[in-house]
Amino acid sequence: MSLLSFDRFCAEILTQTDLLRSRIQGADTRAPVPSCPGWDLGRLLRHLGGTHRRTEEIVRTRATRATGEPGPGTVAGARSRPRSADESAAALGSWLADGAARLVGTLREAGPDAGAGTVAEERPPAFWARRMAHETAVHRADAALAAGTDFDLDEELALDALDEWMDFASRPEVTEAAPGAPPLLGPGRTLYFHATGPAPDTTAGEWLVDLTGGTARRRAAHAKAAVSVRGPLTDLLLFLYRRPTPSGSGGVEILGDEPLLDLWLERSGSWLRK
C-alpha cells in the first residue's frame, strides 16, 4: 500500500519532470550516463518520455499484459522519440514535458481506481501514478549524474519509493530460483534496512525482509538481521537501484552477510529488467 495519495503521485510526475528539465539546461545530450551503461543523456530522455507515453496509452485504453505490458517495473513498447535533427536538451526537455502532461491528464481523468483490464494482473491508475512518479525521480538522478548537477529527493517521496521496492521484492517470483541458481530462501536469512533521517522513535524508514519461510516477507521493524544496510534516505534508495549515491561510496554502511545482500539485490531488482 502506498504511503502517498494518488493526487500527490500525479503532481510528482510533473514536479520530477520539471526538476529534471531544469537540471539539464544547456547540457550535452551526447554525454554518457554512468548509471545506465551504453546510454547517453539523449537516449535517457527519449526512454523516459517514451515510457510516459506508453503508460498513458495503457491507462487510456485499459491495456494489460495481453497487449504486451510485461511486468510491474517497465513498459513494453515504450514510444521512444526517434533521433532527430534537433537533439538539444531544450528540444528533448519540451518533448518530455509534453508526455508527462499527457500522462497526468489521463491519470486524473481516469481516477485512481478505474479498471485496467480484465485479464492477467489488473493495474489501476493508482499503480501507474506511483510507478511513474518513482520512475521519473530515479531517472532524474541518472540525468543529474550525466549533466554533473546535484540531486536530492523529498523525504516523503523517497520513503514511498523505498516502500515500493520492498513491495516488489516480496513478490513470489523474486524467490523462485532458476534451475542451478542459488536459493534465496533459507534458515537465518534476514535483511534489515534503515534509512536515516525520518522521525526518531518510529519504524518509518526501517524494513525487515524475512527470507526464512516459504516466501519473502517484509514489515516495518527495528530488528537484528543477518545483514544490515544503513544510510541516508536518498542514498539508500539509489543504492537499491544500483545508482551512485550523492554521499559517495561511504554513504551506505553494510554489516553482516554481504553475499546474501548481493543475491537479494539481484533477485529483488528483477522487475526492473522485465
From TrEMBL:
Sequence ranges assigned to domain MDMPI C-terminal in this UniProt record: 156-262
Region (Disordered): 65-84
UniProt domain Mycothiol-dependent maleylpyruvate isomerase metal-binding: residue ranges: 11-144
Annotated InterPro entries: DinB/YfiT-like, Maleyloyr_isom, MDMPI_C-term_domain, MDMPI_metal-binding
Pfam families registered for this protein in UniProt: MDMPI_C (PF07398), MDMPI_N (PF11716)
NCBIfam families: maleylpyruvate isomerase family mycothiol-dependent enzyme
Name by which UniProt lists this protein: Maleylpyruvate isomerase family mycothiol-dependent enzyme
Organism the protein comes from: Streptomyces hiroshimensis
